[in-house]
Amino acid sequence: MTRDQQEAKIDQRALELCVRCGTCRSVCPAFEVLGWESKNTRGRIMVAKALREGFPPDAGVLDSLNTCTTCGICAAKCPAGANPPSIVQEARRVLVGRGVMTAAQAGFRAKVAESANTFGELGDRLGWLSDREGLPDRADSVYFVGCLDSYRYPEVAARTFEILRRFGVSLLRDEKCCGSPLIRTGSPAETVMEENLRQIREMKAKTVITGCAGCYSTLKRDYPPEFEVVSVPEFLALHLSELDLKRLDMTVTYHDPCHLGRHAGIYDPPREVIRAICRLVEMKRSREEARCCGGGGGVRAGYPDLSLEIAKHRLQDVPDGVDAIVSCCPLCVRNLSDAGAGVEVIDLIDLVARALETA
Ligand code: SF4
Ligand code: SF4
To answer: Which ligand is nearest to the CA of 24?
Structure first.
């Protein structure tokens, strides 16, 4: 068997861990909205198994596999130790390898190939930066901005960098997409990853700091372990005493991004930062139990209606009387806002910037 043929198979052992108990049915956010067995975790594993046995992939198979947000709550709850999001990702990879993919999957590939970002934007990625001339060529730490903050929330990128540069943090001059949307939807991302890696090496950076949960997860898990990856909330929590934050008369709640929370165990740092600024009231389901915003795994691009319905379910967890929902991922902020949150949805850095403005 050639290497390609070996790669074209979904790992049998991973599939066999599932004992079909159905525990995951009660937590899968896509199933909660759609209600079909093929759109819940257990069904997706059965679909992946059928694919492995030669079942031809039709539109139903693609919908089953691509409606998973890779939120990971099923893996956290599975009594048998199965890792469904990784099976889903692998099954997507196998199908993409055979040229079978949805329009949204093909769209990510085309856009990243043409523009090195997920939006197909041809404008300057560092357009939000006023004085790039002052950027050093070498730095121990670099801020990895990500596609969303670069092109959709440039003010968040600017606020983040304004704080980080006080600590000697620099930027990659020609950052590309981290590769997350490609990898999660089954496509190779080596081209952009290698270019980012080359620049990180050139900078001789030991630490990469990012404010996007998707970038964090990808830099940490999919890049070679040559540098430390630190999330912006971790960095802020570490430097709290140096920030001179003033208290704000606000009550907020915090939404745990799946790729920062369940996938990486980063629960306390954002809460520490929030509590240093204002009152925090937890969502009805938080930390390991937090429901997904619906934006990840390519679902926002591929199944926008489902994505917004998942976000609406998540908004039911928001406690009464809060002034804002705070999160640490631009995709979560975007999806929860678009679903009509009723209160402002802001990035943690926006809250920090307000506490600094009043300083
Ligand atoms: S993935 Fe885990 S929780 Fe879901 S049916 Fe299989 S064994 Fe049960
Ligand atoms: S990772 Fe989330 S969306 Fe995907 S199957 Fe598991 S619970 Fe459902």
So the answer is: 1
User: Atom 7 (ligand 2): residue with closest C-alpha?
Assistant: 28
What is 7-51 written as a DSSP string? Answer: HTS--HHHHHT-----GGGGT-HHHHHH--GGGSHHHHHHHHHHH
Spatial contact of 200 and 219, defined as CB atoms under 8 Å apart: no
Degrees, nearest 5: CA angle 339-351-279: 90
Ligand 1 neighbour 19 (Cβ under 6 A) = yes
Confidence at residue 134, expressed as pLDDT on a 0 to 100 scale: 79
Q: Whose CA is nearest to atom 3 of ligand 1?
A: 78
What is the rounded CA–CA span in Å between residue 86 and residue 84?
Answer: 5
Domain count within the chain: 3
Average model confidence (pLDDT) across the chain? 94
Kindly report the protein residue whose alpha carbon is nearest to atom 6 of ligand 1: 18
Q: Is the CB of 306 under 6 A from ligand 2?
A: no
| Cross-strand partners of 252 | 280, 324
Residue 122 lies in a domain: no
Q: Is residue 49 part of a domain?
A: yes
Can you give the pTM of this predicted structure?
Answer: 0.94
Confidence grade of residue 280 (pLDDT, cut at 50, 70, 90)? very high
CATH number of the domain enclosing 152:
3.40.50
* CATH code: domain of residue 72: 1.10.1060.10
Q: Which of 28, 45, 87 to mutate to test the pocket of ligand 2 (most atoms within 8 A of CB)?
A: 28
Q: Is 48 in the pocket of ligand 2 (CB under 6 A)?
A: no
88 Cα: distance to centroid of ligand 2 (angstroms): 9
Q: Which domain holds residue 147?
A: 132-237
Domain end point (choices 237, 253, 286) = 237
For residue 120, being part of any structural domain is answered with: no
